[in-house]
Amino acid sequence: xxxxxxxxxxxxxxxxxxxxxxxxxxxxxxxxxxxxxxxxxxxxxxxxxxxxxxxxxxxxxxxxxxxxxxxxxxx
Length: 75
Description:
single chain; mainly beta; flat
């Protein structure tokens, strides 16, 4: 099992590319969301990356944060 030191998760609004549109059941250039994840090792080298397109009607997200007793944010 690989050990990842860091992960960056980016979500952005996109026009769904034609190559993904049929599989998502939408028209080419329909509004959607792309989620990208980049995992890095202790040496800051990219160990793995992935990108996932989603149609606009099948994605929702939320995040909850709270402060611990030292004032740090935690999920």
